[in-house]
Design a protein that fits this description.
The chain is mostly beta strands. The protein has 4 domains: 39-370, Methylamine Dehydrogenase, Chain H; 392-732, YVTN repeat-like/Quinoprotein amine dehydrogenase (Methylamine Dehydrogenase, Chain H); 751-805 and 824-890, Immunoglobulin-like, CATH 2.60.40; 899-1008, no CATH class. The strands form 16 sheets. The protein has a 6-stranded mixed beta sheet. A hairpin with a 2-residue loop joins strand 28 and strand 29 (366-370). Helix 6 runs antiparallel to helix 7 and helix 6 (899-934) runs parallel beside helix 9. It is globular and about 110 Å long. The termini are far apart.
């Protein structure tokens, strides 16, 4: 390279300035999952024959999960090990349940399918995993393990979903994955969907070839006779013959195979083929000849997505076909009956070979286990693997998250924080909000009970109060199944809805045109010409050469994103799913094509983000992986689209195969950007010049949408539900870019004083934190003796946190007098002092009453009042401080609770705490004195002893069941009354406090200690 001196100095300056930034560890900033708990698409399942309660599921975007209690609970076992969450096949070694192989890349080739990254192996039943190769094969249809040697493994590689690749074929390893050999291939366009080993002789192998590829506008499933069919080897894959006798002679599509464990001569195949040739084929001579047993259309319903046949391991005449619906035959495939499962769209089934009544089945709602052959099933509300297309938030307190969930019959909403008291936390707060699986669902600003919802282009207005949705479809024409070139309005399956940031009554909706309503859809106005590329050759009936499939997912040249500028009304940006960007500055009167000149054509403009800081600036994220190009495409313009800058170069932080799905600008800090990709999150502090991973504890899964709201980073994912990173204020501090040798305390965000509702204890999912002030601080090195203090607006100390327990003994003395010191000093391991960024969470609670049990001492204190506070952090001889604000809960304010009421309540809380502490301390001293006197000799003053015992009887409860509640318990009783809610303190409490104070004073005066 030949840099000029100036460019070298510029590069050096840039490099030096970004060193601290690029090395910053954000581990202290953790995401939390908020659900929903409802399962998403599961593409493969298996069980462990010798451990009947153990099962595995592989999700399309959620990774591998394991249950050891018959599906009662599921735990993810692939996080931290897998580079992709897309799972195609799971197999457990018959001779050792500790050995598990996983082939990645789902075989249901939807447009949103996530690419595979090869094969993983575990030798400890899923505790840890090792990547063992085949990274570039694409989607994997099947994995089979030699039952006599778990180091011999077969893989059927379908290939790259969106382009030809030479790695398609059948692969074999004989050394547990150290080396792989491609033992069968046809071409770079033909892969293999399934592979089966002959029971009793693993050297006999059957393989199903499949030509498959997707384009944004169509599905290719099948090819000529030479491009598909069933192959067989009898010598461990060295040689192969193609089975032909009795099978379709011409065009052939997807095939799935099953060999009977009860009679190895019997081989079944479900075959996608032209009308009359499709369905179930059966061989009774190991494939020498086949008979066409059934033409039932349900066997090949959407074959590219389904096509799975399994047999009862004890009866070759009992056959299961997974499609839509799940059907079963008990007479070798002649007749079929439907089986009821918790969800439709079925993908896989596994039956325990020792007890086929025990089985697990996979569908678009998750995985479900049955003990009785499918008569009843385990729940799917214990698998947080939801595939979400987008995220919107409303403006209530707490705010709720909205999205379309794949294969859910309606859009959904869930809360960011517990809004009420319920008993079933995992599912009780998942509510329906209209539309259907694709979404979006957009709550109306100012009235969250109204939700604008979509279902594949059908616009609805959902009312949460009534649970009813009004239908106002643009054009009022059913577009399902049409050739798109014949449609007046082309709506993509995920048709965008956008509410104007300037007028909540103005809603935009996109076909190939931009539509506008100000009457909740009663009437629509088309305010644009065709805003897409509209190439005629892409306007075709989807599904070739065999199966027609037109669900709207393949409608090409439609709008995919719409955004109006928050800074200028009528300045609207649109992006299409064929790669075109338009802008209007006058509310739709005139339009200009501003597509980036260097952007390769045809990609999907997944997101547009007009700047919150500069009216001429906007950002876009473009996804071209459906065209076989997985590179990230992020662009920025500062001149209304006249010129664009690529923000995702080959070397500025986002890997070259991380397809970009969404790009958002921080609404507070200019230049702070967030990008969601196919495999996780990234952040930029310099307006996209450089990027760094912002993944932390987030699982590897596609980020489909991002919202920044009330200081939180809110995400939707295609396989792991919603996630929230609470309080990103620290990222907005410019100091984050220059952290080096000095400690730094970041300013905490304003915090709303929510009271946590009473919900069922013990729930670990979803993750709902207690009300918390997040305090972030940076330490250039691990530090001993860290001290954090919080003061109120009168500079009165509330709490002191220490990182080192030795300081408690040496330099901090806790005051325990009858006046109850307002300073709360205690040691808490949550005050971390590690090198780098740290986060402390203060739950807004002051010191509670004294308790004899040190684990309970000073706990359960009252919440601090709304107001201004200060946090001080002392690191060595340096002290830093930041102010922050605590606000009243808007719901409490709406209920008529004023600051004056809260102040009076707080004063009563302090009085009761003081009384309860003094009473408990007196009880403790009396107990110690009584014990001391009882151990003395006969000189003990019996009158004094009896007097103390009598006082104790008045203070403490007797032991045993249902004792009479004495004075300390009575004081504790009213403490709970004054501390449970924001309220006016009732007259009875005030009077009762005076009674208890009088009673306690009398006891104290009688006892001389």
């Amino acid at each position: 390279m030949n840099f000029s001196l100036n460019s070298q100095l510029l590069f050096l300056s840039f490099f030096i300035s970004t060193i601290p930034l690029l090395s910053q560890d954000f581990g202290a900033l953790q995401y939390r999952t908020v659900g929903p708990a409802r399962g998403g698409r599961v593409t493969t399942v298996t069980g462990v024959a010798m451990q009947p309660g153990t099962f595995y599921l592989g999700a399309s975007g959620g990774g591998v999960w394991k249950s050891e209690d018959y599906g009662t609970t599921w735990n993810n076992v692939s996080d931290g090990f897998f580079d992709t969450p897309s799972i195609g096949a799971i197999q457990v070694a018959e001779n050792d349940p500790n050995i598990v192989y996983v082939g990645t890349g789902s075989d249901g080739l939807r447009s949103n399918v996530i690419s595979g990254k090869g094969v993983y192996k575990s030798i400890d039943a899923g505790k840890t995993w090792e990547h063992i190769g085949l990274k570039n094969v694409g989607q994997i249809g099947a994995v089979e393990i030699d039952p006599t040697n778990s180091n011999v493994v077969w893989v059927a590689a379908i290939g790259n979903t969106f382009k030809s690749n030479p790695e398609r074929g059948v692969f074999k390893t004989t050394d547990g994955g150290k080396n792989w050999e491609k033992v069968l291939s046809i071409s770079d366009k033909v892969g293999f969907s399934d592979i089966e080993l002959l029971p009793g002789n693993p050297n006999v192998i059957y393989a199903a070839a499949w030509k498959a590829e997707r384009k944004p506008w169509t599905i290719i499933s099948g090819g000529s006779a030479d491009e598909g069919g069933i192959y067989k080897s009898i010598n461990g894959g060295k040689d192969w013959i193609k089975l032909k006798n009795g099978l379709p002679k011409g065009t052939i599509g997807k095939i799935d195979l099953a060999v009977s464990a009860a009679n190895s001569s019997m081989l079944y195949a479900i075959i996608e083929a032209p009308k009359g040739e499709q369905g179930l084929y059966k061989s009774i001579d190991q494939g020498k000849s086949f008979a066409h047993v059934s033409k039932d259309k349900r066997l090949v319903n959407r074959p590219f997505y389904y096509t799975n046949v399994e047999l009862d391991p004890t009866n070759p005449d009992v056959i299961y076909s997974n499609a839509n619906p799940l059907i079963k035959s008990e007479d070798g495939g002649k007749t079929w009956k439907e089986m009821k499962v918790p969800h439709g769209d079925n993908h896989d089934i596994w039956l325990n070979p020792n007890n086929p009544q025990l089985l697990i089945q996979a569908n678009d709602g998750g995985a479900n286990v049955s003990f009785n052959g499918g008569k009843s099933w385990s729940t799917q509300f214990n698998q947080p693997t939801a595939e979400l297309y987008q995220v919107e938030v409303d403006d209530q307190y707490p705010y709720w998250l909205y999205a379309g969930q794949q294969d859910n019959y309606t859009t959904i909403a869930i809360p960011s924080f517990p809004p009420s008291a319920v008993q079933s936390v995992g599912s009780a707060w998942v509510i329906n909000t209209g539309g259907c699986e694709t979404g979006p669902a957009v709550p109306k600003p100012g009235n969250h009970n109204i939700v604008y919802a979509n279902c594949k282009g059908r616009f609805g207005v959902f009312n949460k109060l009534t649970g009813v949705e009004k239908s106002h479809y643009v054009g009022a024409s059913n577009i399902y199944g049409h050739n798109p070139k014949d449609l007046k309005y082309r709506f993509q399956r995920v048709a965008p809805i956008h509410v104007s940031p300037h007028n909540p009554d103005v809603v935009y909706h996109g076909s190939q045109f931009l539509h506008k309503t100000d009457s909740d859809g009663y009437s629509w106005e088309t305010i644009s010409p065709d805003l897409t590329a509209f190439e005629q050759d892409k306007q075709v009936i989807s599904g070739s050469p065999i199966t027609r499939d037109i669900t709207g997912e393949e409608y090409y040249s439609t709008l995919y994103s719409i955004r109006e500028s928050t800074l200028q009304e009528g300045l609207i940006w649109t992006g299409s799913n064929d790669g075109v960007v338009f802008i209007t500055k006058d509310g739709g009167k005139t339009w200009k094509n501003v597509t980036p000149k260097k952007l390769p054509k045809g990609g999907r403009v997944e997101s547009i983000a007009p700047s919150h800081h500069d009216v001429a600036t906007a950002y876009i994220a473009v996804d071209r992986h459906l065209l076989g190009d997985s590179r990230p495409y992020l662009y920025k313009t500062t001149d209304y689209g006249a010129n664009w800058t690529l923000l995702s170069t080959a070397s500025n932080g986002i890997p070259s195969d991380y397809t970009t799905r969404v790009l958002r600008e921080d609404p507070i800090q200019q230049g702070l950007l967030y990008a969601g990709t196919e495999y996780g999150m990234f952040v930029s502090f310099n307006d996209g010049t450089t990027w760094q991973s912002f993944q932390q504890n987030l699982p590897v899964t596609p980020i489909t949408d991002i919202k920044i709201f009330r200081g939180d980073l809110v995400l939707s994912t295609m396989g792991r539900g919603f996630w929230i990173l609470d309080n990103i204020t620290t990222l907005r501090d410019k100091a984050i870019q220059n952290l080096a040798s000095s400690p730094h305390l970041f300013k905490p965000d304003t915090t709303i004083r929510y009271r946590y509702p009473k919900i069922r204890a013990g729930n670990s999912f979803p993750k709902y934190p207690r009300t918390t002030v997040y305090m972030d601080y940076y330490l250039p090195e691990a530090t001993k003796g860290l001290k954090l203090e919080i003061f109120n607006d009168k500079n009165e100390p509330l709490i002191t946190m220490l990182s080192d327990s030795t300081q408690l003994k040496s330099s901090v003395k806790e005051v325990e007098d009858m006046n109850l010191s307002t300073t709360f000093r205690y040691v808490n391991q949550k005050l971390k002092a590690k090198k780098g960024l740290n986060r402390f969470e203060w739950g807004l609670h002051k010191k509670g009453p004294w308790h004899k049990d040190q684990k309970k001492r000073y706990k359960n204190g009252p919440m601090v009042l709304p107001g201004n506070y200060t946090v001080k952090l002392t690191v060595g001889d340096k002290t830093m401080e930041q102010d922050f604000v605590v606000l009243v809960d808007p719901r409490v304010k709406a209920d008529g609770i004023t600051k004056e009421i809260l102040q009076k309540q707080h004063e009563m809380q302090e009085k009761v705490i003081a009384l309860l502490t003094e009473a408990r301390l007196l009880q403790d001293r009396l107990e110690k004195e009584v014990k001391k006197l009882e151990t003395k000799d006969q000189k003990t003053d019996r009158n004094q002893l009896e007097s103390l015992k009598k006082a104790l009887q008045q203070l403490k409860n007797e032991k045993g069941a249902y004792p009479q509640q004495m004075l300390v318990s009575q004081i504790s009783y009213i403490y709970n009354m004054v501390n449970g809610a924001d309220q006016i303190i009732g007259k009875d409490v005030v009077e009762r406090y005076q009674e208890l104070m009088t009673d306690f004073t009398a006891i104290k005066n009688r006892v001389q200690l």
